[in-house]
Amino acid sequence: MSLRFTKLALGAALGSLFSGALLASDLVITFDDLNPDKKAAYEAAVDAFKKANPDINVVANNGDREAHKDTIRNALQNDAPDVITWYPGNRMGPFVDAGLFMDISDLWSSDPNLSSKFNAIKPTMSRDGKQWGVPYSYYQWGVYYRKDIYDKLELSEPSNWAELLGNCDTLKEAGVTPFTIGTQYLWTAAGVFDYLNLRTNGYDVHNDLTAGKIKYTDPRIRDTFAKWEEMLDRCSFVSTHATMDWQAAISPFAKGDAAMYVMGNFSVGQYKDAGLTDDQIDFFQFPEITPGVPRAEEAPADAFFIPANAKNVENAKKFLAFIATPEIQGDWNKAIGQLPPNSDAEINTDDKFIVEGMATLSTAAGLAQFYDRDAPAAMAKAGMEGFQKFMLDPSTLDEVLEGLDKVQAEVY
Amino acid sequence: MSTDVTGSNNRFDTSVTQLVIGGVVLALCVYMLIFVINTTMVQEFYGYSRQINARVPTFFIRMGLLLVALASGFFCITGHSYYKRNKLAVAPWLFLAIGLAFFLVYVIVPIFQSISYSFTKWNGLYDINGVWTGEWVGLHNYRVLWEDPNFWTSLKNNLIWLVLFMLAVPIGLFIALFLNQTVTGIRIYKSLFFFPFVISQVVVGLIFSWAYNPEFGLLSEVWGWFFCEMKENIVGNLTRVCSVEPPSILGDAKMATYGIIAAGIWPQIAYCMILYLTGLNNVSSDQIEAGQLDGAKGWKMLWHVVLPQLKPATFIAIVVTVIGALRSFDMIATMTQGGPYGSTNVLAYYMYEQAVGEGVGRYGYGSAIATVLFLIMLVYISYFLWRMYQDEKEGG
To answer: What angle is formed at CA B20 by the lines to CA B14 and CA B22, rounded to 5 degrees?
Structure first.
């Protein structure tokens, strides 16, 4: 009697457990930023999604950004969430090629937002003619400079290469190092290289180089390095850059020992933390080098993807469509001080850097992701080491370029 | 189970029952381990707490099953009459079995796996069906390695590490000799000298990279007394202007490796010192006295009387120093990450960077570096084992 009862109860319990699991529709999201403002913006978007879809049981995970770069491999292959963050451009390449990300071209063509409001960034999200993810944020790169120093020396924002070099001469005469940079973690040097290359040769050469179609010893790339040598010579960078990370490099900038910084917009908060005010800092686009080359910009994006192993694909697509809406894109990026990829989304008009960034990017002829996201990781690592070596000793140029050609032949 | 070994009538029966029960449980466990327990099942079972918690229960369930499998395996074996007849010979192997199994799975198999990966081009991914995405390229990785200047830099740095790290042995010896006296508070001095070995390598690395920092480090402060003065800059802040720039030790490819080695050798000296201090406790005073009577003093005493008695300590000190030099990974990771431009890489770090680090994902190439490192280690370890064997033969 009692045994039968137990069995019954157990059966009922198990039954309810499994039927419960079947009825509830789930959505598991994996995000990768624990910085307080980024985390809050993500959680706000998830809450809004929950409110709009009360029938979906959302499990929102978040983790450290660097650790995510390692764990995503496991996550995609073993227990995949339904939505996961990753980088577009070539960084998504290995996962797309291995079939670990889901093709969401249908969503891009049917969704009213994705099909018409994301044209600027669509190429970045595409590979093999298909779209693989939905971007939630991006930001501009450019030159941040000390406006007070510029005013004191009666300099103005340079619009071409000669003016930039002229400004550098004046700054050096006044005892100010023109540029600060911290190359300990290498990628900052890639920002400078990308801009020199985009302005000397244009967007297509940038893409061909990072796609392995142009050699590093190509005369066009040599031109870029010649400009860089000129820059090193006349616009010298702070001498100790190899031992500083990008945050440490802010210190000479904040002190007034250095006047300019080629950086991404995420750095503005740090300038302000270092005691600088909106009146002391300003932004200009990296000036033109070869006249007539259409102005392309660096604009790294962060995006959501659906793993091929996702279990709740419909819900995942619902979520991606949701974060593509102008309201969510606007709120999210206002909260984190970046730019919404949706061209209809509102921006924070009180922030002059955001306003200027929006103007810069919406008129750009092309958007590059960044050297280390456009090039495969193995190439990027070698390339950026080469840039650092060249910055420390420009006479090693030939050695560096030939070495990079070898790596290029190996990687692609 | 019957403990009566010498024989009872139902011995055959017990062992058969035991064998059958044990065998069935074992087979069941192995079957569950391989085919049934997977993350999906556990996820279903745990319903909403998926994703975060799924790995943990799977792990515990697997470990539990493994333990049950092992226990039933033992149960099986101990019931067998062969075991009962050969208890003394078999029992040690039973105890060793678990350790050996783990050693096999986590050390021996991976060694061969990574050697086999070194002949492939692979980015570390399996596709959606779990199919391996790499391709066989034969000796290609080794050919690339041969022409890779970064590889030769790493190998050269490994040698520099080995040679310079050996300085820790004599320096440790002299500090030990110096501290081997009875003065009030000598224990405090000994502890202070031993201190660097107690703190983590990462902390040592950080302290040294701060000290080396050309902007605010200890070294540049001292430098500033001689070559620099404070001036007001354009916006009225005080800033330091130097007639000769302070050296940027970790930013200069020529000095960076030596800078890291100097940091690494500091705790190593402490380690050698403590080895010699314990060794000196065992130096027989009779022999010292005998030496004194024969007129030995200073260096002669040290060389002919004390050092031979310290031979075991020297041997261990050299061994741990070589190992310390070869596993210099964490110092490099904290101080320079192999930079500037790869000039402070050693093989271990270069391997990590190419395969796992920063998503570079050249697993085949990384494995080729690992294989070369493995061969180098193998030579050293073989020599070490051979020496041990020779010493045992002499001693025994």
So the answer is: 95
Q: pLDDT tens, B231-243?
A: 888 888 888 888 8
Q: Measured between alpha carbons, how far is residue A48 from residues A43, A319, B206 in Å? A: 9, 11, 43
Distance, in angstroms, between B257 CA and closest chain A CA?
14
- As beta bridge partners, residue B112 has none
Structure tokens at A45: 């978007």
Q: Tokens 């062969």 belong to which residue?
A: B82
CB–CB contact A243 B213 (8 Å): yes
Q: What per-residue string of b and e applies to B145-184 under the rule 16 or more CB within 10 Å gives b?
A: beebebbebbbebbeebbebbbebbebbbebbbebbeeee
CA A410 to chain centre: 26
- Of A392, A383, A389, A384, the closest CA to residue A410 belongs to A383
As given in the structure block, the two tokens for residue B376 are 């180098």
Question: Which CATH number is A141-298+376-411 given?
Answer: 3.40.190.10
Q: Which chain B residues touch A30 with a CB distance below 8 Å?
A: 51
Digit-coded pLDDT (tens) for B239-258: 888 888 888 889 888 999 99
Helix (H, G, I), strand (E, B) or coil at A366: strand
Chain B within 8 Å of A77 (Cβ-Cβ)? yes
Greatest CA separation for chain A: 99
> Is B224's Cβ below 8 Å from some Cβ in A?
no
Q: Which of B80, B60, B63, B75 is nearest to B29 (CA)?
A: B63
Q: Which domain holds residue B241?
A: 148-361
| Every domain range in chain A assigned CATH 3.40.190.10 | 24-138+300-368, 141-298+376-411
List A137's β-bridge partners, or say none. Answer: A302
Q: Which amino acid is at A317?
A: K
- What span, in angstroms and rounded, lies between the C-alpha atoms of A54 and A47? 10
Q: Is A263 on the interface with B (CB under 8 A)?
A: no
pLDDT digits (tens, 9 = 90+) for B89-116: 888 888 888 889 889 988 899 999 999 9
In a domain? residue B332: yes
Is the CATH number 3.40.50.720 carried by domain A24-138+300-368? no
**ipTM (interface predicted TM):** 0.80
Determine which of A29, A71, A79 to mutate to test the interface with B (most B C-beta atoms within 10 Å): A79
**CB contact, 8 Å: B166 with chain A?**
no
Burial level of B215, CB count in 10 A (0-12/13-18/19+)? Answer: middle
Whether residue B207 is found in the same domain as residue B325: yes
pLDDT at A189 over 90: yes
Main-chain phi, psi angles of A102, to 5 degrees: -90, 140
B392 interfacial to chain A (CB closer than 8 Å): no
Angle (CA) B42-B43-B46 rounded to 5° is 85
Report the CATH number that the domain containing residue B182 is assigned in CATH.
1.10.3720.10
Residues of B in contact with A77 (CB under 8 A): 125-126, 130
Interaxial angle between packed helices B149-165 and B347-355, expressed in degrees from 0 to 180 and rounded to the nearest 10: 140
